[in-house]
Fold these 2 entries.
Entry 1:
Amino acid sequence: MHDNTDEFRDRPVAVFGAASGIGRAAALAFAARGARVAAFDVNAALLNGLADEMRAAGAIQALTAAADVRDSASVGPALQKAAGELGGLDHMIFTAGILRVGFLADMSERDFDDVFAVNMRGFWVTMRAALPLLQGGPARRRAVTAISSAAAIRPKASSGAYAASKAALSHLVRVFSVELAASGITVNAIAPATVDTPMVAPYMGPATSNHGYRLTGTSPMGRIAQPADIADACLFLSSAASSYITGITMPVDGGSTAALPAS
């Protein structure tokens, strides 16, 4: 069994969408393994205290900064400044995402465009900024992990734009992985189902109050995912144990997309 307890020590890691949920859990997971972590979010106020939490968890170095993944003029300088302070960039975790629900015919153009701007285009913008900093040759482990969704595998009515944006993100991951394969940089995605995060909290009620949208909810394993479950998968896809894995969208969903449960 591979032990990644020390392999992230002193390694520079950037996490986007780190103010809450999966991103915050990922930042703290790398921090607990002695990494140098830069945590970014569009909402800088929500990052208050996170640097102290990361240092308390064990980060050798921790910093936070505002960055809007929709805007290359925001992401590029923020990431370059952080890499300068951390001593480079070895791993990038992209967890930024938004959810808008409703029937496709009723969704506003603004909501549709916002979902794609963050969930899909935001990943592309962030990758373009990260790639010059990640380059270092195959001798040093370099990895990018993005958060896709079970919706990319099994879409639902009333969240069609979200599902399409995550499917598009997964395809970007596939193509990036091949285009970057010779560099030794791996690019993968994780597809969670319902995760206990602030993003899904407003939709925990009955579907009738959510424009018909229904969370996947409890998995066949008997619970919904916690952010730490997904953070652990981020660690794996950044570790040496996954060095020959690239271009995948890996379900981490307690079996939710494996088969429909018995009724």
Note: The mean pLDDT is 90.
Entry 2:
Amino acid sequence: MKISDLLNYDKPSFSLEVLPPAKGQDIKVIFENIDPIAKYNPAFISITYHRDEVVYKHLRTGAIEERTVRKRPGTVAVAAALNYRYGIPVVIENVLVLRGDPQKSERSFVPNANGHEYALELLKQIQNMNNGLYLDAELVHPAATNFACGVAAYPEKHPEAPNLEYDLLFLKQKADAGAKYAITQMFFDNQKYYDFRKRCCDLGINIPIIPGIKPLTMKKHLNLLPQTFQTILPEALVHEVLKCKTDAQVRQVGIEWAVFQSKDLLQNKVADIHYFTMGKSDNIIEIVKQVF
């Protein structure tokens, strides 16, 4: 089932992003979080993919050994397991095309050898595969793939873009290259999403723009999220969080704010709301129960 075919503005849905288990953990960690929310019928689930990381180990000899590790392996296997267990569409033949983040040791993104510098280049490669055109020109009778591609969108602009107008031009190119939908980076001020959606429409970007929502869960998010995702937290939300004495209280504020955002978004015609779970679903369940 293609995600683009599931989106219905007359009957809006919700969807989830989940993390693969950390290396050494069991997939039961994910099942324990998805089991209680599956009964609310999420439209689809996306599973994040984590690139290899370079870590350095100090040896007893004084030398430094470089090792390449993947801290959250198994994205495709997890997607297949979730699809088999729940029958919920996952992002397998539906590809969410992202460039990815820089290594922790990098100031800016550096592609691997023969890799892509921009998500647009990867999107075009996948579209070529859909037409039976592969990088290996010597393949005999290559089969055309059938991927439906989604892309990322940034209501407050991509952190590396000089301004939102410049960023929108890239989104327009991705829509023109065959992207079927876009999922936004997290935001906490719905007006920023509405303004962004209008600018997309004015520019001729006519694919669904799915809002991405991340409920706050701890006080340190006040600093961490703006630093990491370049998002601005509304004064009213910050004020409520600062009154909290425990992270449990912050978590409740996060639920209430996400419920407020979600209900407002549904009143303003969205086809789906995508929740970033960050490996936990108890707060998402509370939000879904109150909204859908």
Note: The first strand starts at residue 13 and ends at 18.
